[in-house]
Amino acid sequence: MKRILFWKVLFVQVVVIAFALVLFGAYQAGAIRSFCFVVLLPLLVSAILSGIVYWSMRKRLEALSGFTRAIAGGEFQRRLIVHRRDVTSRLKEDLNTMAESLADQIRDLQGRMTTLELALTGMADGVLILDPSGRVAFSNNALRTLFGVPGDSGGKPFLEAVRHHGLAILINRAMQERSPLTGELELLFPIKAFVAASILPIIKESMREDVHLGTAVIIRDITKIRDVERVRKDFVANVSHELKTRIAAIRGFAETLLDGAMNDKEEASGFLGVIQSHAARLQRLVDDLLTLSRIELGAVSFSMASHDVGPLIEDAVQLIKPQADAKQVAITIKTDPGLQPVHADRDRIAQVLLNLLDNAVKFAPPGGAVWVLARNAEDKKVKSYEDEKELAPSQHPIFNASGDFIEISIEDTGPGIPPQLIPRLGERFYRVDPARSRELGGTGLGLAIVKHLLQAHGSSLVIENARRGGTIVSLRLSVSPSLSRGSCP
Question: How far is residue 76 from each of residues 62, 68, 204, 477, measured CA to CA in Å?
């Protein structure tokens, strides 16, 4: 720009000199001193004017150049000052308008980028964005949790950030083939999980050649789906096993009777007793399956009303007492007489309590004990009957605490449950000790039914081991109709 301006000024000077020479030719007959007036004076005037024009234009162009460099550097708040109308005023106004437009567009783009980043960060699925060279450009919280990726992994090769061989193979293959890929992976560290990985190369189509802009990796945790599939398979396998075992036994004894055992009345009576026992077991199994199915389908109606906790517990204990007396298991009830009535279906809660007491008595050793405690849900100090005995009645929280829930805990002196198996309790047909459970006559569906009935009441089952051994099973019941669902999910 400066070079062009220089040549323009030089051109003006040449024209002026040429004009002076023409005048000199016209007046060459005059005196010699007229030469200075005719030639040198116009030349001097033109040189002065050209210098003024040059330096003025250069200053304006430098201001424009500095403004454009500032805009290119991101200083969108900069503006050119328009003093008066001249050859550059329109250009300055246009540049100011362009800067305002660019600033608005950048702000809008930054807002969209922030919204997108917040959305990606808050996603439940893991998100990993790689640049064309395979370095980490972005990773959200879910991905960092699943793979243990450090927060400062930006700019690192993905193999250094996400150290998983199977995922690395999928990413490399997708980047090489430039086509989407999916796969399932098993994670062992930092958490155990099954994930579904979707690899999507980001390609910008062009008439000449497609440009690879990066790679997007989406990781979805499918551990719960796998668990559901496993539970379903186990359910089918267990039902088939239970049915085949009982049917085979019934059929075997029936064939034995038909082969002549009926002639021996004593032997026939024993065989018929075994057949009746297996048939009753089948009937309980079918009844429990139908009950569980109806609850899951929402076909079970609930008659919600206010009921005192004390009578509910006492009725359940009376029903289980013959079984407890046979094993010499002592059942102790400890409830607060001032507890508010619970809002629940009496028959369904009675079924829950009976099932839990039945399990406690079954797994308690002969001569053992079972304790039933009822207290306000705000009581966090008392966790077991052993803790409760250490408090005087005046110190016991259940006499002065108030809450919206009543907590019922059933503790036994049985063998306890391995901590790693507690999360699986409540699955259909799951047994901690399958041989002993079948020996005691359980169907393996009791806790599953209890879990669904409590969910219908807006509650859940909490199972833990007591400090001195045995198991504590706790549930909460609402004392307010507004806090209890009253319908099966």
Answer: 18, 10, 29, 62
